[in-house]
Amino acid sequence: MNPLNDKLTQIIGSLAFVLPEVWLAVVFCLLILIDLFGKKSWLFYCFFVGLVIEIGLIYLSPLQNGLFLNTLTSDLLTKIFKYLFASTTLAILLLLKNAKKDFAIFQRIGESYAILSVILLGMNLLVMSTHLLMLYLSLEIVSIGGYVLAVLSFERKSVEISMKYVLFGIFASAMMLYGMSLLYGFSGSLHLAEIAKAIQQNKLSFPFLIAFSLAIAGFLFKISASPFHIWTPDVYEGAPTTVVAFFSTASKAAGLAVLSKFVIILGQKEIYNILAIIALASMLIGNFSALWQFSFKRLLAYSGIAQAGFMLLGLLTVSEEGVKILIFYLIVYVLSNVLAFLGLTLVENKLRSDSLLSFSGLGQKNLVLGISLGVSMISLVGLPPTAGFTAKFLIFSQLWQDKANSLSLLLLIVGLLSTAISLYFYLKIPYYLFFKQEENKNTQITDFKITHFQKVFLLVLAFSLLLFFLRPDWLLAVLGLS
After folding, report:
1. Residue of 35, 45, 268, 459 with fewest CB within 10 Å of its CB?
2. SS3 72
3. Where is the NADH:quinone oxidoreductase/Mrp antiporter transmembrane domain (predicted)?
């Protein structure tokens, strides 16, 4: 039979396993058409329904390896990450719906939705990829969409700051591409499994470690891990809040998903050492830098850098149990951050400021907002009775079990120290909400009201963080990991 026909048959046969991705391409086209020829009010409902249908298609999609000439795979871990990406994008869509409509991003809301759908498609392909070329192309889809989202406010400050994101992103992509080319040169293959075999057959060399370090640069950039974190505070401060929320949650989850694939497939002690150093630097830089922040966005930016370090700790325990812990931690982090950004969005709607002083006394004026933001901050610290405590406890327990390894013990000590340091800046938010008196007695603060839907949104997220503290097994059962 003709080899070309064989390949075409394989490609056509693979389409049944990527229906969620095909559907996202359809949603993108629909959003563009509605933006050009339809009513703007249809855009939200089209995207919302599209995301709900995508989640259903993810559930119905069968598991299969070796898709599209062995460049993509669909396994349980991939499906879990795709659920997370779609659910997070759905939450960001609701954030956009509840943001004040005089923000500049709403002048281009059709393009915003379309770009989000493309980024979601890129993230799905990214987590499915088992081929270096597909990894790179998928990451560039996500990155270019992120560059556009960062400048959607079309304000001078936002454009200037987003250039930092673009330039650092291009630099990280160039490093990653060079590292991947070196991996190909050492192994003779672009498939991760073949690269892993080449490593096992040949003694791991120093040049390979350099190649690996360069190859993961783009993914470290996505999760804001050191030393690729420099762009984070300025971009978080200058970009629209809903865009920042997306960078902080879905984009970070995508980068971590691919890093976990690299570590699981290539799994070598020397690779763990590299990630351990990055985790240490991220935790220390993020937590110490956050101590002096009085902008809520910048505080969350440095918080994200520190949290990236904790997530990398989860990667260092590569086992069936370790993967469960990593996914649990990531889901809890996403819930906590979405809740924090929802609270910030509501405050910005009223006060047009993200200064911590803007939160003074708001917890007394609006109890639902105050309690929900308090739960979010307590979860990010890792204190009971929130799921953040369970997530960090599981990671620290894994490190303690490996305490015979001096590096694991060092990571455990630094992790505990970083958590103690983070108490100060995270708990500043509840302090301002409930104990700090507002300096300006203006009518906005005196009459701080939110809609019933916004109250329900806040309470559902806060309740989830409390529920998964009491019953973490329920979350794992839903994901099929119990």
Report:
1. 45
2. strand
3. 129-414
What is the domain range of residue 478? 268-482
Residue 83 included in any domain: no
Q: What percent of the chain has pLDDT over 90?
A: 32
Helix residue ranges, H only, 223-319: 232-238, 241-246, 252-266, 269-290, 296-315
356 is a domain residue: yes
pLDDT digits (tens, 9 = 90+) for 302-337: 999 999 999 888 887 656 566 778 888 999 999 999
Q: What tens digit of pLDDT does each residue of 208-239 get? A: 888 888 888 888 888 888 888 888 888 888 77
Looking at residue 437, what DSSP letter applies? P
pLDDT at 204: 64
Q: Which residues pair with 179 in a beta bridge?
A: none
Residue 482: other Cβ atoms inside 10 A? 11
The encoded tokens of residue 257 equal 């998903």
Count CB-CB contacts under 10 A for residue 133: 13
Q: How far apart are CA 248 and CA 44, in angstroms?
A: 22
Tokens at 368, concatenated: 């639902």
